[in-house]
């Protein structure tokens, strides 16, 4: 127990700033997302398709060396279609809104001017590129170990009176928030390590039965179909789902991501459309996805605090409040633990003469 207490203190104060930044940044990003609202039924596919084709054509003329990464379809009446543009010779990466009525493209909103984009970069990579992913993986693993070390110390010594108000607050927050905080850390690690998670789930799950080969290979030739035509074809092929995101042509096909009744906010249904004639090549429904993909239907919503559509606006608000309280709890644990550590370091010459007190722990 003494070893657990010692390392809980030593490692905890080192991780405190990163944990607080991640927790508070995640809470801010959560509230920056639009709340769910009533959606058009049915979706205006024809208007979207025309607006997408016109907007992409205009952007191709305006930024001839730029490429779009994907197109997000709106979820509310009158909301614009959003195009994610990658960096070109004349501009940096950013977003462009396309009017869903007349297809006119707005001005480029560069990432450097978007607070949400900067927060995403900080939350997902610490603004360190690929190195930030490894830092966050390490922090998540160590933080999970610290959580269970702290629980072990609390179970052993929680009956002893706390010597300071901060120590008392640390003890009160810890046992209440330990399970949801552990879930948040674990899901965060899974999302930052998708290749490891997919490999582990693929090895653990039983192999899916082999599917029959396609009757004919995808049509080859120059691209004649537009993204708008692909959207219309996908909506017809999977009418029970709603189009959410469109991806650029690749290997002779375009992918339309759609959401049915799954929990994942972007959906796990995919329709693949030929770039040659806009014919539907195949439909991959959410239930047909392998376990290495289906896990996102639970892990991602759990981490970001998304409720199923059936919960409506009240459920979404309750979820956001709860996830915000968890973020504040994690921040509180990090801050109170770090402050106590530095206070103990300042009193080290005095406490060094009292080994019995150290043995009792005086846990945070």
UniProtKB/TrEMBL annotation:
The keyword Repeat does not apply. The keyword RNA-binding does not apply. Coiled coil: none annotated. Keywords: Membrane, Transmembrane, Transmembrane helix. The chain crosses the membrane at residues 12-32, 131-151, 172-191, 317-339. It comes from the Bacteria. PANTHER family: IRON-REGULATED INNER MEMBRANE PROTEIN-RELATED. This is PepSY domain-containing protein. It comes from Aromatoleum toluolicum.
């Amino acid at each position: 127990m003494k070893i657990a207490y010692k390392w809980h203190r030593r490692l905890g104060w080192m991780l405190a700033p990163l944990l607080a930044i991640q927790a508070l940044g995640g809470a801010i990003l959560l509230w920056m997302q639009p709340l769910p609202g009533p959606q058009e039924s049915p979706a205006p596919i024809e208007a979207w398709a025309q607006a997408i084709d016109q907007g992409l054509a205009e952007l191709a003329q305006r930024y001839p060396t730029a490429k779009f990464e994907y197109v997000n379809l709106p979820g509310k009446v009158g909301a614009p279609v959003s195009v994610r543009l990658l960096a070109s010779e004349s501009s940096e990466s950013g977003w462009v809104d396309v009017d869903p009525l007349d297809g006119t493209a707005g001005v480029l909103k560069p990432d450097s001017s978007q607070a949400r984009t900067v927060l995403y970069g900080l939350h997902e990579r610490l603004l360190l590129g690929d190195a930030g992913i490894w830092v966050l993986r390490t922090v998540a693993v160590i933080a999970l170990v610290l959580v269970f070390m702290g629980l072990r110390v609390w179970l052993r010594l929680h009956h002893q009176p706390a010597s300071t108000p901060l120590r008392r607050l640390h003890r009160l927050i810890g046992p209440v928030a330990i399970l949801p905080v552990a879930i948040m850390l674990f899901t965060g690690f899974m999302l930052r390590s998708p290749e490891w998670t997919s490999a582990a789930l693929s090895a653990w799950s039983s192999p899916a039965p082999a599917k029959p080969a396609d009757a004919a290979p995808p049509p080859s030739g120059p691209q004649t179909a537009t993204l708008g035509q692909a959207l219309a074809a996908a909506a017809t092929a999977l009418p029970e789902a709603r189009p959410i995101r469109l991806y650029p042509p690749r290997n002779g096909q375009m992918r339309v991501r759609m959401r049915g009744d799954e929990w994942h906010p972007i959906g796990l249904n995919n329709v693949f459309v030929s770039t040659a004639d806009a014919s539907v090549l195949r439909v991959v429904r959410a239930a047909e996805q392998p376990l290495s993909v289906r896990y996102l239907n639970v892990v991602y919503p759990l981490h970001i605090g998304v409720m199923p559509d059936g919960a409506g606006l009240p459920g979404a608000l309750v979820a956001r409040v709860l996830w915000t309280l968890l973020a504040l709890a994690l921040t509180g644990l990090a801050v109170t633990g770090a402050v106590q550590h530095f206070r103990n370091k300042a009193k080290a010459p005095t406490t060094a003469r009292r080994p019995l007190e150290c043995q009792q722990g005086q846990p945070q």
